[in-house]
Amino acid sequence: DYKDYAFMVLERVRSMRRYVVDWFPSGGRIQKQLRKADRLGFDYAIIVGEDEVRDGKISLKDLHTGEQRL
User: Fold this and answer.
1) pLDDT digits (tens, 9 = 90+) for 19-58
2) Residue 42, class by beta-carbon neighbours within 10 Å (0-12 exposed, 13-18 middle, 19+ buried)?
3) Is 17 left (phi over 0), alpha (psi -120 to 50) or beta?
4) What is the DSSP annotation of 13-50?
5) Which helix (H) or strand (E) holds 51?
6) What is the pLDDT of residue 50?
7) What is the pLDDT of residue 19?
């Protein structure tokens, strides 16, 4: 399940104690969630979907430039 994988990633990032982390698990439209993160002042968004779970990776999106990478 992608939510379990996303929660594991969230906890790992939080444990670094270098980043402020929040989670928007609503399952709503991704663009709406990214706008919310940008409004809240986040620099990056970690995106976890079916492909990321299958590959054991995450996508990282820069909310300022729009660049996204695995």
Assistant:
1) 777 777 666 788 888 888 899 888 888 888 888 888 988 8
2) middle
3) left
4) HHHTTSS-----TT---HHHHHHHHHHTT-SEEEE--H
5) helix 50-55
6) 83
7) 74
